[in-house]
């Protein structure tokens, strides 16, 4: 089976700005893929190229086996899109907007539409101009998820939703994933990505810096260890791969490169260990590791 | 700046908002004012060059003064000296320009801020409830006064007398002020800046027509040159501007009328500010249908839904205006009976076809409706750009709707609306003409209306072209295209432009129905130009990025 999305070496410039600078992104069919990066990294630009709204300057872009620029209309029948900044026609009602977007895509499942309106607690009789940001997002989400399509492209779809609605969103993504649909989820909410995504891609300044399963990404990075022994633990600072060591009497906390973990454990075996916890890094820590230095650079400027 | 209490707190922050508005308009308003000055200076230079002696001016004015069609388009002659001729050539277009400048600026700094949410951010600061409207009034009134002063200076610079130059500038400034008031009220009544702009601009157009009716029925002085507009022109702020009669016997007191209108409108606008919620219009939102009807669910259905209100407004407005003009027919004919010279002259103007005076008037009015149709077309098609900039186009084009289909839906809607508007104008004119005992007939007048359609469509093609090629500049370029078409086509003789330049305007090629013979050739050519421009624009739109 071909990948749902296959992008390699994608370049997109706006005047002098190089928004995408050789970006790679592969999303396998049936997978829920997290798409992460700080503001301005190029996530939305990538998605707009995938939708044929922007034209790639260089690189190879395949979407559902086709060319998103020249075959846009044909491909769009098979996908649904939720933009990050949902802008609706002020004088249409939410229900009209749902039906319009669904119909232009090729039709909606009426029962599914009713179920989703209920689940997201959206009043479809209100004019779009009276909706809050979260309610506008619900309109786009209902229009998208009520369509029986193969691919969902979601650009920060939950940034305006409350926690209850966030749970409804996750439930809905799991449902479409269970029936075999592919989801590309751009998000800043790490817990959401960790809960839903099997693979993630992290981009920065228009380039992919990490891509893979969450498990593999974690393995590539560090594990946080907290250890307490009967007496002071010595010699940790000299071990290769140990970082950010904090010693408080008989307790020690540090991060260790995951491939060095066995040596560290052998060293700790020489002490009378009372307790030991180790925790894989959270996605947020992974993310901050990639961007932390950029933040520092900004700060030192 | 005052404390947060006391009556002055409603105006807190006005100064800052004035500076913000000036910063936003630092290019736009100077361009309007400079454009007006160039128009006035060019008019003065052209008059001095073409009619250096009194005899020539008298002959020219005698030739045109009795023609109601000319009076509609040009206003009333007030005398025979150089300044009076500048008045006759340029005052009316400058009054309209001042009115439109004020209208758009007023809406831009009030309802548009509110609609886009900028005013919400500002209102959360230490800014009083009246500050936004006050700042807008200060900026627009300042621009109007500056416009008047610049016009006076330009005319003085061209060697015109002081009294007339002052009255000329003051008339333009005062008309601008009157429409600043009208727009201030419109901005309170309508929830979208588009609707507020449309309402206020329609007021300018209707006002122009009402004044035209008054001037066409105007009373000629014994010298056969000076004309005083009849009562309808006294009900129109643009008419007040002409009644100031710069370079004639200046009637300074008339300037009090537009200022009084501004005061009344300002009071009304502030009262409305106090009575409505932020972001709301006067009509509260009611729940609508919970699902989309079949008619909505297509690109064409959506385009119609978006343009429905404005289109119906234009069609009804033009139908009523046409009906109003049709009632004039018999009166104009009676006026002509006592003046055989006028009839001969009109016959010449209409190409010797033996047209009646009333048909010449109708032909001139149809020209105005042609311009209105073109204005409608530009406004309706620029919806493409606002849909793109507002992110709505992205939502639609991310569905299985191709770009060409999306643009064509808007084009079909616009062309249909323009045709309906022209048919309504012609039918209105024909029906009331027949009811008043005229014999022009509904059929010929509807045909005369539809003959204007290809020119409007040529502008539609131009809008699609600029939209496809230069989306970010589409709005100013499209309106500039309309203004240039009017200037070259309808006012080309005002500027003494050569034929070749005037032929660039689509309006130059429309046969003057029902006064002249129908000629299909130019209309077919206009339609072909419209198609070619639209095809080029579509080809470019298909290749470019969507640019929010």
From TrEMBL, chain A:
Which Pfam families does the record associate with it?
ABC_tran, DrrA1-3_C
Residue span(s) of domain ABC transporter: 5-230
One example of the protein's molecular function in GO is: ATP hydrolysis activity
One GO BP on record is: response to antibiotic
Per UniProt, the keywords (alphabetical) are: Antibiotic resistance, ATP-binding, Nucleotide-binding, Transport
Its localization reads: Cell membrane
Family according to the record: Belongs to the ABC transporter superfamily.
Q: What PANTHER family is this protein classified in?
A: ABC TRANSPORTER ATP-BINDING PROTEIN, ABC TRANSPORTER ATP-BINDING PROTEIN NATA
Q: What protein does this entry describe?
A: ABC transporter ATP-binding protein
Automatic annotation (TrEMBL), chain B:
The residues forming a coiled coil are none
In Swiss-Prot or TrEMBL terms, this protein is called Exporter of polyketide antibiotics
Name the keywords, alphabetized.
Membrane, Transmembrane, Transmembrane helix
Keyword Cytoplasm in record: no
Transmembrane residue ranges: 29-48, 91-110, 131-160, 166-187, 252-273, 361-382, 407-431, 451-470, 477-498, 518-541
């Amino acid at each position: 089976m071909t990948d749902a999305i296959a992008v390699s070496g994608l370049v997109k410039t706006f005047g002098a700005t190089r928004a995408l600078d050789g970006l790679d992104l592969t999303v396998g069919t049936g997978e829920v893929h997290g798409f992460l990066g700080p503001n301005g990294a190029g996530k939305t630009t990538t998605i707009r190229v995938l939708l044929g709204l922007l034209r790639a300057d260089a690189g190879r872009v395949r979407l559902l086996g086709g060319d998103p620029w020249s075959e846009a209309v044909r491909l769009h029948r098979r996908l649904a899109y939720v933009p990050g900044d949902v802008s609706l026609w002020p004088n249409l009602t939410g229900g009209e907007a749902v039906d319009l977007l669904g119909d232009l895509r090729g039709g909606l499942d009426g029962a599914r539409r009713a179920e989703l309106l209920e689940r997201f607690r959206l009043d479809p009789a209100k004019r779009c101009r009276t909706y809050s940001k979260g309610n506008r997002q619900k309109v786009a989400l209902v229009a998208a998820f009520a369509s029986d399509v193969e691919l969902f492209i979601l650009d920060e779809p939950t940034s305006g939703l409350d926690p209850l609605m966030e749970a409804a969103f996750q439930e809905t993504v799991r449902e479409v994933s269970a029936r075999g649909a592919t989801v590309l989820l751009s998000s800043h909410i790490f817990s959401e990505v960790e809960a839903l995504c099997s693979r993630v891609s992290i981009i920065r300044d228009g380039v992919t810096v990490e891509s893979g399963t969450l498990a593999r990404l974690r393995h590539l990075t560090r594990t946080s260890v907290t250890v307490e022994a009967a007496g002071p633990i010595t010699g940790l600072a000299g071990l290769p791969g140990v970082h950010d060591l904090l010693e408080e009497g008989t307790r020690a906390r540090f991060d260790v490169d995951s491939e060095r973990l066995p040596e560290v454990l052998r060293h700790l075996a020489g002490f009378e260990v009372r307790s030991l916890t180790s925790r894989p890094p959270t996605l947020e820590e992974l993310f901050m590791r990639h961007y932390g230095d950029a933040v520092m650079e900004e700060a030192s400027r | 700046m005052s404390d947060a209490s006391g009556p002055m707190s409603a105006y807190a922050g006005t100064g800052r908002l004035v500076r913000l508005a000036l910063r936003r308009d630092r290019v736009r308003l100077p361009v309007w004012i400079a454009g007006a000055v160039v128009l006035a200076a060019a008019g003065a230079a052209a008059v001095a060059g073409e009619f250096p002696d009194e005899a020539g001016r008298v002959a020219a004015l005698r030739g045109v003064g009795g023609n109601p069609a000319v009076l509609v388009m040009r206003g009333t002659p007030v005398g025979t000296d150089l300044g009076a001729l500048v008045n006759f050539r340029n005052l009316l277009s400058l009054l309209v320009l001042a009115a439109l400048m004020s209208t758009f600026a007023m809406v831009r700094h009030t309802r548009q801020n509110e609609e886009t949410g900028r005013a919400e951010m500002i209102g959360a600061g230490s800014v009083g409830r009246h500050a936004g409207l006050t700042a807008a009034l200060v900026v627009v009134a300042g621009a109007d006064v500056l416009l008047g002063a610049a016009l006076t200076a330009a005319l003085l610079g061209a060697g015109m007398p002081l009294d007339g130059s002052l009255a000329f500038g003051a008339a333009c400034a005062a008309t601008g002020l009157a429409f600043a008031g009208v727009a201030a009220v419109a901005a309170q009544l309508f929830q979208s800046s588009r609707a507020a702009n449309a309402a206020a601009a329609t007021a300018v157009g209707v006002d122009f027509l009402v004044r035209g009716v008054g001037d066409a029925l105007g009373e000629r002085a014994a010298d056969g040159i000076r004309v005083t507009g009849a009562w309808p022109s006294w009900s129109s702020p643009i008419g007040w501007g002409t009644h100031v009669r710069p370079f004639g016997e200046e009637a300074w007191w008339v300037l009090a009328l537009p200022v009084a209108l501004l005061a009344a409108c300002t009071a009304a606008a502030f009262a409305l500010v106090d009575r409505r919620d932020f972001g709301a219009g006067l009509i509260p939102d009611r729940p609508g249908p919970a699902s989309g009807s079949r008619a909505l669910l297509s690109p064409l259905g959506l385009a119609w839904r978006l343009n429905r209100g404005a289109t119906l407004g234009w069609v009804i407005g033009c139908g009523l205006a046409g009906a109003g003009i049709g009632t004039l027919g018999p009166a104009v004919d009676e006026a002509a009976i006592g003046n055989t010279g006028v009839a001969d002259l009109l016959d010449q103007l209409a190409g010797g076809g033996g047209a009646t005076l009333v048909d010449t008037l109708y032909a001139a009015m149809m020209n105005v409706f042609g311009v209105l149709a073109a204005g409608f077309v530009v406004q309706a098609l620029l919806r493409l750009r606002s849909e793109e900039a507002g992110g709505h186009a992205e939502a639609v084009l991310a569905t299985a709707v191709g770009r060409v289909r999306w643009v064509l839906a808007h084009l079909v809607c616009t062309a249909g609306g323009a045709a309906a508007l022209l048919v309504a104008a012609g039918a209105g004119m024909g029906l009331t003409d027949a009811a008043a005992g005229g014999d022009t007939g509904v059929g010929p007048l509807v045909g005369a209306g539809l003959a204007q359609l290809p020119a409007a469509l040529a502008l539609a093609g131009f809008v699609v072209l600029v939209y496809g090629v230069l989306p970010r500049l589409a709005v100013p370029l499209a309106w500039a295209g309309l203004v240039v078409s009017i200037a070259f086509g309808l006012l080309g003789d005002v500027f003494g432009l050569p034929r070749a330049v005037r032929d660039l305007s689509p309006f130059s090629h429309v046969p003057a129905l029902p006064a002249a013979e129908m000629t299909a050739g130019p209309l077919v050519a206009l339609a072909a130009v419209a198609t070619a421009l639209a095809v080029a624009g579509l080809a470019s739109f298909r290749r470019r990025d969507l640019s929010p």
